[in-house]
Amino acid sequence: MRQTILARRYAKALFSLGKEKNLIESYSEILSGIAKLYDEGTLVVDSLTNPLYPLEARQKVMAAIAEGSGADAIMKSFLNLLVEKKRAEILPDIAHEMQVMVDEEQNISHGTVTSAIELEDSLKNNIQATLEKITGNKITLETHVDPSIIGGVIAKVGDLVLDGSIRTQLNGLKESIKGR
Predict the structure, then answer these.
(1) 57, 75, 106, 162: most buried, per Cβ within 10 A?
(2) CA pair distance 55, 159, nearest whole angstrom
(3) What is d(CA 85, CA 94) in angstroms, rounded to the nearest whole number?
(4) Contact status, residue 145 vs residue 115, Cβ threshold 8 Å
């Protein structure tokens, strides 16, 4: 279960400290790297969160991880605080919230484009440029293939959905014929 509210508080505190030192991107990268360790196996998570291990042992594990990731003194203290306050289990959520804050600071939006077939790079670039013009933000796109849309594309960025799929057009035609 995600603990978004708590994670957002920790991320906001680290974001504020990082902004003062102009290190928000670096902090976000370090957190994301450590969060990936959580995905790779339960051994890391267990060694940082299991209360059966003494606090000093868990702190040493986190200190070794922080050292290996190239963390500065503030980040090391932050990671140590997570272990001390028994919040190390929400580190992936903190990393996610931190990335959201960094993206917002840099006017970066994430979007998806769904098409019936794999899109060529030139077409992806055109769609990305158009979405950037519409939203006013830099867009990072993720593409998906869904043959059920028959043709065209469906682009989503935040709350904005641009549906130019053949399936939607056929459904609209069907509804207009029914209405008559």
Answers:
(1) 75
(2) 44
(3) 14
(4) yes
Residue 180 to residues 22, 108, 175, Cα–Cα distance (Å): 62, 45, 9
Amino acid letter at 6?
L
Q: Which two three-digit tokens encode residue 43?
A: 């051994």
Q: What pLDDT, on the 0 to 100 scale, is given for residue 131?
A: 95
* Separation CA 138–CA 31 (nearest Å): 23
CB 174 within 8 A of CB 167: no
- Rounded Cα gap, residues 67 and 18, in angstroms: 18
The reply to whether CATH 1.10.520.20 applies to domain 4-104 is yes
Domain ranges of the chain: 4-104, 109-179
Looking at residues 120-130, what average pLDDT do you find?
95
- Answer yes or no: are the C-beta atoms of 111 and 140 closer than 8 Å: yes
Which has more pLDDT, 42 or 26?
26
The contacts of residue 109 (CB under 8 Å, 6+ apart) are: 103, 135, 137, 138, 139, 140, 157, 158
